[in-house]
Amino acid sequence: MRETTNPASEDEARFEDFFRDAAAPSEAQLLWQLERQEALTAALRALFHGPATLVKLRVWVFMEVMAMPASRISREALNQHFHMLRDEPLELVLKRLREAELLLWDASNQQYGVTPLAQQLLGLLTPLVSNQAQDADLSALLANVAGAHQLGTLDPAQLQHLQAQLSRLYDEFADAIASGSEFHLRRARQRFGRALSLVEKASEALSAIMVQAQEQGNAKLERLARELGLAQARLLAMASQFNRALQQADRQRVTLGSTGITTTDVRRWLQGVHFLENLSLGALSRPVQPIFVAQHELLDSCEAEFERDRPAPKEAEALPGAQAAPAGELAVMSLPPEMSVMQALLARWSESGELEQNLAPAVLGGSYARASYRAQLLPLLGDPQAQHLSGATGDMARQPWRVHWSASQGEVDDEYVAWMSQGVLRSVAAPEQQEEDKKE
């Protein structure tokens, strides 16, 4: 097994010969960066030059060698590791790796060593063996940007590539929305959801890049970070457009009769049928059987339909006459009787000429709930806001008595209350009360 190359064909033309101006390549920054990676470019050409089967063999052997844990690998260890390969193909691949300076042969120790160029090339070939088949392009770009930011090796070109990929995804999703196809929308919606999850996971790194660019005063990096944030916002805003498009597709879905089967179900079923032409097998095996109906048979059917018994239609009925409303009583909520009892007690004290009375006879009596209610009525006496009211509350406020509580407390002789604050009720006719009113 031999591999032949044509060195003359590789040097047929110079790179500058492809340009109208030979000085144009020297002014392009991207071409200048490619020239700096001449060794990496040569290593890629060494791996991927030639037939597809040889390329696959070289990449497989290279990845297997890079996965071996030993820093120094003997030829015997390589033979044991690649025991399934024949000697000639293995020697051919190892020779190509040595010529590309991916493997370094130490003749004194009879061992192979991995070069830094091989480690750099491994980072480029990692997506070939990655399990992330879906959205690998976006995830790889986001991982490169986030990882480079953490290591401090972020380059503006990486942000440009990520921004270009987000723009391409936006256009792809916009085309899916404009198509109006339900199945196209659902497929694009799944990828849109995965893209959003990836972007959200890397949003912290993108925000940190913008803050770092502002702190360092890197105008170009800051501008690229802001444009990247704008592209991310446009992608996030497309979620509502997907929802509206899917709702529109749901409204256009047609249900077949009362079966509950929709046109979407029929299309999904048809997509699962491997050979659609088999559905027509046997469809024309039975001939068409026409039925001829004479005119008199049609007339007999019409007469029978007209003479058929039908239920009589309902006649219009007049509304019922007016009826007198039954007699009733209007229930009005009344105040508890304790207020009227207290007012009667205060009126008797006023008629008898009493000027001061203890609180206990006016408050106690009955139960604890009634005593509490009477105690809550005492602040109404002399209340200026309640004196203008009509009814029992206003009458209570206009009583010529005022309550005076004392700071001392003591026992009382009552069945339901054992202890209460002491105080007195004074008539407004008392001299002491009149002097206090004048002071106020």
Summarize the SSE layout with pairings.
Blueprint: H1 7-10, H2 24-27, H3 29-36, H4 38-48, H5 52-67, E1 72-74, H6 75-81, H7 87-99, E2 103-106, E3 111-114, H8 116-125, H9 136-151, H10 156-179, H11 182-201, H12 203-216, H13 219-252, H14 263-272, H15 295-307, H16 338-351, E4 356-358, H17 359-363, H18 368-377, H19 392-397, E5 401-411, E6 419-427, H20 431-439
Antiparallel strand pairs: 1-3, 2-3, 4-6, 5-6
Helix pairs in contact: 4-8, 5-7, 9-10, 10-11, 10-13, 11-13, 12-13
Protein name: DUF3375 domain-containing protein
Shape verdict: flat
Quaternary organization: single chain
Structural class determined from secondary elements: mainly alpha
Query: Helical stretch count?
Result: 20
The string of secondary-structure elements, in order, is HHHHHEHHEEHHHHHHHHHEHHHEEH
How far do the termini sit from each other? 122 Å
Tally the beta strands: 6
> What characterizes the major β-sheet?
3 strands, antiparallel
The total number of structural domains is 3
Organism: Roseateles koreensis
Protein name: DUF3375 domain-containing protein
How do you describe this structure in short?
This protein has 440 residues and is mostly helical.
Question: How would you explain this protein's 3D organization?
Answer:
The chain is mainly α and 440 residues long. The chain has three domains: 7-129, Arc Repressor Mutant, subunit A, CATH 1.10.10; 136-252, no CATH class; 338-439, no CATH class. The protein contains 20 helices and six strands. Strand 5 and strand 6 (419-427) form a beta hairpin. Helix 5 packs across helix 7.
